Amino acid sequence: MLGLPGIPDVIDLGDALILAGLPTSHLLVLEVTSDGRAALHVPRLEVGQGLTTAIAVLVADELDARLADVDVPLSDGRPDLLFNQLTGASNSVRSLYDPVRAAAAAARARLVTAAARRWSLPADSLRTADSAVLAPDGRRASYGELAADAAKVAVPAVPATPKSPDQQRLVGRPTGRIDARDIVTGKAKYAGDLTVPGAVPCVVARPTTLNGTLKSLDASVARAMPGVLGVVRIPTGVAVLAETFDQALKARDALLTTWNPGPVAALSTADIKARLRAAHAPFLIPPLLTQYVDAEFDFAFVNHAPMEVLTAVADVRPGRAELWFAAQTPIVAQQTIAAELGLPQDAVTVHVVRGGGSFGRRLFFDAALEAAQVSRAAGRPVKLMWTRNDDMRHGRMRPASHHRIRATHALGQVLTYEHRAATVATDFRHGLGEALTAAGFNLSVAGLSLAQAFFLLSEKNPYDVGIPTQLLAEVPLEVPTGSWRSVYSGTVRVADEIMMDELARRLGQDPVAFRRARLRGAAARAVLDKAAEAGRWGRPMPPGQAQGIGYHDEHGSRVAYLVELDATDPKQPRVTRAVVAADVGRVVNPRGLEAQLTGALIDGISVVLQAGIHIDHGAVREGSYADFRYARQRQSPPSVEIHLLPPTGSPGGAGELGVPAASAAVANAYARATGTSPRSFPIDF
């Protein structure tokens, strides 16, 4: 039975963001300097995903430069880029692949032209290699020697055409991170490492419940403590400035505060679950004359928990402000901070600094806004840091959600498939709405919320399951939420993949064969087949151990995970092996992609088996990695095997791709190993 294509089969969220950025996609800055360096200023954020390495590979390949000669600094906030400086939706390489190559090809054409003029030779007789232009007679001019003359070339004498795939020498070749040595030796600078003249350490005392407000403050003891330089009230709490962070933290603990309860102080996890369950629209198809499978699933709140806590440096002076922080949305941050300070936008400079992890957390700029407020009030530069506890208990989270699914079937075929997803409302106020409008999606005319637009552009069922429907219901709660890696797909598609296993069991079919018969397209089936073949799907397993499979396609890419799980002790299950097959189109750096897919596996293990957030009377219970139980080495598989399929087109997205399939594979393996079908995640919560 042929299933109906979804909106993301025609245009997905990444396509929409690329469309929004097209008018300014050519405004990249590529410099070739007199010392022979090529620097591509990247209008995206590097948060450990290897983006700068991928961009450096593209530049070096297209420019015929040595990779060691390429620098990839991060661009400051550039309002002229409009919607082309947002890092998200697994879209960075996907959107920059052609513009970066075009910029490098244009630079190469000008360098060749400059050499041709210098030597009075036909430009088409010259070639480029190893950061130099070479003449047939053996003459050689380095790019550094030619840079000044090349800058004067208005019309190149050779076509500025990017290379075809068969001409690429670096793209597709496994490459180590260009910044690996800097990271491990401490040379790489994060916001907390920066030395900005006069910037003093700062921390904030925060409410006892989410979004609570200050009721009373006695700071007399704190002000008298060694090293304390000031105590400042801001909307989100009380900031303490000191000569060292240790002094600031001790003084913060000495503040005498009382707090008004936040707007969700009456709610705990069970109350929120009840509200989610009550939010669903009824199913369209009553199971009167057909057989059916019903299932419900709960997914907990999940913290982003990046290794580097939020840190921002701010220097606010009369008439201007300058900030340094890891920003996925620097233009929106610049606009918001300017409005808060009462300054024109061009009076606020945002320096984008590399981040140590994000997973969507740095789409928002909470620390930077607070730092600006404190700097203005204190009249001096500050370096404000959120502690781990700050971000766990007051930072943004993946919203909790509840899913209700009904599939009807007859004669071995799925006839209808209805998925109702109810989530705590996700905050998308980071420029997404404006970008979608610029791409031609008039949300007001369509009557769609930002969340519904995101849902429609990202969520689809990749299988032929008769008539599929997917609906999103949002429960508005004043809880700090945000996009967590794979956003809706991290729950919606996990529930779908669990249902595929259960439908296969109900119909007496093998889970892989059941999926394969219903996947749309040869590329999808090839990925599933590769994972099943390489993972020896169906091989005999000891009692209490089992295999699980999960498939997902999004961002123009496809992936399947096969995991083996040991649940001999059901309270301490462990994934012992994982086999991954992926088709993401043309792979720029296979080593970086393998790292992304491995990271997604650890995410899936964590949020399915043990990592989640509880709400107790409006307060987050978990406060650190000690009780927010992300997978450690002992919970990680000793064997991970990754197979990248030959490219089927231009690059797709990969940063978030693996999480839904990995999560589903773990859940399905647990069900097969224990004989139980988990309905609430994480399982050990």
From TrEMBL:
Pfam families: MoCoBD_1, MoCoBD_2. It comes from the Bacteria. InterPro entries: Ald_Oxase/Xan_DH_a/b (IPR000674), Ald_Oxase/Xan_DH_a/b_sf (IPR036856), AldOxase/xan_DH_MoCoBD1 (IPR008274), AldOxase/xan_DH_MoCoBD2 (IPR046867), AldOxase/xan_DH_Mopterin-bd_sf (IPR037165), N-heterocyclic_Hydroxylase (IPR052516), OxRdtase_Mopterin-bd_su_IorB (IPR012368). Residues 185-263 form the Aldehyde oxidase/xanthine dehydrogenase a/b hammerhead domain. This is Molybdopterin cofactor-binding domain-containing protein. It comes from Kitasatospora aburaviensis. The lineage of its organism: Bacteria, Bacillati, Actinomycetota, Actinomycetes, Kitasatosporales.
